[in-house]
UniProtKB/TrEMBL annotation, chains A, B:
Protein name: Geranylgeranyl diphosphate synthase, type I
UniProtKB keywords: Magnesium, Metal-binding, Transferase
Keyword Acetylation set for record: no
GO molecular function, one term: prenyltransferase activity
GO BP term, example: isoprenoid biosynthetic process
Length: 360, 360
């Protein structure tokens, strides 16, 4: 039960079997309660939500869709164990976090005009904008409901943390939208946005089980710190995959984020680095920004490859890759002060490794 | 402190001075905390929310806009007094309910495509759909935040009740949207929808101060019953004003709800009544439903007046007016079992009277 000796990603091979088991446990324990919560919604919101979660197709037939990696439920259960409680203690927390996560996906996809999510048409595309708004709202309300009906002081603390995380999520989306219209975004601004959009809810997932299990505030804060940095590591890797990911693994088009003119971490880090490649990149992106969406979409593969090459030459790819490793190390270090079973600590480490080395 | 003798609206003149004082007190005590909560939002969401509340105009200059009647904050403060607590005990409840109410206005206006609210352009019209979604979400999250940061068991109970009320609000909006596309809506369905859309949050406002003041569940339930029926009385009067209201008092066009082809209570009650006027009305409305929005908007005043006349002839106006009085009486009767100071009971009665006799 002593803090583990400092380790880095390069010390170990990722324990993939352990991670798969952990993700599977989260899915298996949380899904029945998640489905029961969604079934409380009045028609047609219950079906719209079931479509979003991939449980039915657009025609209402049962489906076995891709419900995402389910990192958050796995973290919530592990979080309960970190506080010495049973994994089951974390289940309402896992469900509440998943409800908030999916509330934000429903609304973000509509705001961003994204037509695809997990290889399927998004809810606003299939069921219209009003259903995307309504069902998102309903999932957010359900999150508070499943926690507060526990009726305990711990549940109230957990709900408060979840509410604060949700506000950060919303702040992050507001920043993401405002950055789209700005010429220049700094690395610090990009990291703040990603901390809000991805870090805050992963942080909450990592503390919520422990809070429900009666952990004190200091323990909850340390677990949140792990989740926050893990979220930033996750996002850095996502940003790398968004440009250089293998389409067969990511399910996205090559240079996906460049096609969306996203000011992601590799881009802002490249521009911040200075030098001739950064200058040339800055000129190209400024010209791109002035183009209409249609003109821009007609770019050849080569034009995107040129931009990706300049980002790499200016050091944006390497910086982001290093950033993922730094955040990975900081996440693990945050757990040093928390007393928890060695097995649980190892699983937190395995999850962190998985997040950083994944390819899709 | 004994239950008052049964009274009906016709027994008394409405104590308007007392109601104005009550509404003013609610506004005065709740607004500073509401403004402080909204000020927590990151830019530009703080300004968008301030515009929605009427505190600034579209250019960002200070404004003294119409923030609505503020019935809910007045009820929340009175609710605290009903439990023997100070009015101030109800303030976080008043603020949370106002935040949820305005979250729903922001989203509903966008879903319904409504361009005007309180004589001003709606948020989605001025700041775009994304801001209406985002700021609505943020206000909903803030509601939980201001309650749960009290850190008491009472606050957790209050948040749970507010969350359940919010889900009903969302159910009501879902029903409202689905009824638009249906040929026939029954009186029962219309009342269910109005109970969800208007009753649930007024019910929560009427119990939340008492819950924060430590009232037991039975007292909170009785207060909610008053608020629920008051909400239905309020909505019945709103539906009457929506057709026959004086435009100079309502600030809306004449026959406003008919222009929107709303299946409001007078309409569905008229159709349910049967007889030649109901039949003729049914034929006209079926033909109206087949028209495009533009064709329909080109109707002359006379065509709307014909429809309003048929609704009245078929008994829809009288039924709705009686319904308002029935709900008014049921609301007051719900308070009979609750032990509270006579002055507080009289103020609940005066508010109920005001809701039913108002003209705008």
């Amino acid at each position: 039960m002593t803090p583990a000796t400092p380790r880095t990603l390069t010390d170990t091979a990722v324990d993939t079997a352990s991670v798969i088991e952990l993700l599977e446990r989260g899915r298996t324990l949380a899904t029945p309660m998640l489905r029961a919560a969604v079934a409380r919604l009045a028609p047609p919101m219950d079906s719209v939500a079931a479509y979003h979660f991939g449980w039915i197709d657009a025609q209402g037939n049962p489906a076995r869709g891709d419900g995402g990696k389910a990192v958050r439920p796995a973290l919530a259960l592990l979080s309960a164990e970190a506080a010495g409680a049973e994994p089951a203690t974390g289940v309402p927390g896992a469900v509440a976090v998943e409800l908030v996560h999916n509330f934000s996906l429903l609304h973000d996809d509509l705001m961003d005009g994204d037509e695809q999510r997990r290889h399927r048409d998004t809810v606003w595309k299939v069921h219209g904008p009003a259903q995307a708004i309504l069902v998102g709202d309903a999932l957010f309300a359900l999150a508070g409901e499943v926690l507060l009906e526990l009726g305990t002081a711990e549940a109230a603390r957990a709900t408060r943390r979840l509410t604060l995380a949700t506000r950060k999520l919303i702040d992050g989306q507001a920043q993401d939208i405002s950055y789209e219209h700005r010429e220049k975004v700094t690395v610090a601004e990009c990291l703040e946005m990603e901390g809000n959009k991805t870090g805050a809810l992963l942080a909450c997932a990592t503390s919520i089980g422990a809070v429900l299990g009666g952990a004190d505030e200091a323990t909850a804060d340390a677990l949140e710190a792990y989740g926050h940095h893990l979220g930033l590591a996750f996002q850095a890797v996502d940003d790398l995959l968004g440009i250089w990911g293998d389409p067969s693994a990511t399910g996205k088009l090559p240079w996906s984020d460049l096609r969306q003119r996203k000011k992601s971490l590799p881009v802002v880090a490249a521009l911040a680095g200075g030098g001739p490649a950064a200058e040339r990149l800055g000129e190209l992106l400024a010209a791109d920004a002035a183009k209409s969406q249609r003109e821009f979409e007609d770019f050849s593969e080569e034009e995107f490859a040129t931009r990706a090459g300049l980002i790499e030459e200016a050091g944006g790819r390497e910086w982001t890759s290093q950033e993922a490793r730094r955040r990975h190390a900081t996440a693990l270090a945050a757990l040093d002060g928390v007393d928890m079973p060695d097995r649980v600590r190892e699983q937190f480490a395995a999850l962190a490794d998985f997040v950083v080395v994944r390819e899709g």
